[in-house]
């Protein structure tokens, strides 16, 4: 049986989302095939491990592993050899900074430990929204008009941004996910406030024209035959928000996520082609999820997620389930791909 370490938590703003992904993965690993171990990385980058039966682990065990009787630690990355000596594959449940941006991937590459998802390059580029957009444009992938605001020089000016994008417009820290550190500005005052707020987190800020249309997300999964296959696009309709923000993504009832999406076969195939092109352009592996907005006949690509969520509310498992797959078999595919990729 393969020994799988489910890696979750981390220092990013998406810490608790990552814990949700990790718990879901632990609970759905086939214990006839795998020996699971939970690894929680604290927001201080301390490591806590547990080999307890996943059914025994409660919410507070993950959120406060230092106080849990089921977790050992803390360890540092420098003294964590004992954790990885018995690891056949790291199942990554991380999101955001440190987990999705190539840093942890570089750590595992150094130790020669197989891990799920994309490697260092795709992770780093996919996480950096501005760099990813440049690659989209080079590949002919349509993306909303955007500007890059420099916090040091305070340029472009507010007047230039208003002229370029109008209102509403989106303001995003380029390395944040799960709709954290992003907002929608409806006025000059809101735009100035968001730029001021986000300047503490990034030296560059992405401003994007708001596209009025319906939002979709299309996963791509590397299959056992070594081909990358687009899954079914998911239609996303926020229930109580103007856009697919953090609450709409993760609060119960925050949005409708419809799969199969009620769209034409032609539109679905066009989305799948874009998702696959994006996946390959960034040299992704394992799994990715590309977010898009459709306005009329135009499809605008917003961003790519190289470690998409696997919580009960997440889109990749929903899309895979709509095609007849189970959560456990989806994890099997991710692990098999990781073991193949790192053995080449």
Summarize the structure.
With 344 residues, the chain is an alpha+beta fold. The chain folds into 3 domains: 2-115, Rossmann fold (3-Layer(aba) Sandwich); 125-142 and 212-323, D-amino Acid Aminotransferase, Chain A, domain 1, CATH 3.30.470; 146-209, ATP-grasp fold, A domain (Dna Ligase, domain 1).
Structural category is alpha+beta
Q: Could you say how many structural domains there are in total?
A: 3
Roughly what fraction of the amino acids lie in strands?
15-25%
Q: What's the CATH H-level homologous superfamily of the largest domain?
A: ATP-grasp fold, B domain
Q: What is the string of SSEs from the N terminus onward?
A: EHEEHEHEHHHEHEEHEEEEHEHEEHH
Mean pLDDT: 91
CATH topology (fold) name of the largest domain: D-amino Acid Aminotransferase, Chain A, domain 1
Q: Give the overall shape.
A: globular
Return Rg in Å. Answer: 20 Å
Which stretches are poorly predicted, pLDDT < 50 over at least 5 residues?
none
**Roughly how much helix do the residues carry, as a percent range?**
25-40%
Number of strands: 15
Distance between the first and last residues' Cα: 21 Å
Quick one: biggest sheet?
Answer: 6 strands, antiparallel
Query: What is the count of DSSP helices, taking H or I runs of 4+ residues?
Result: 12
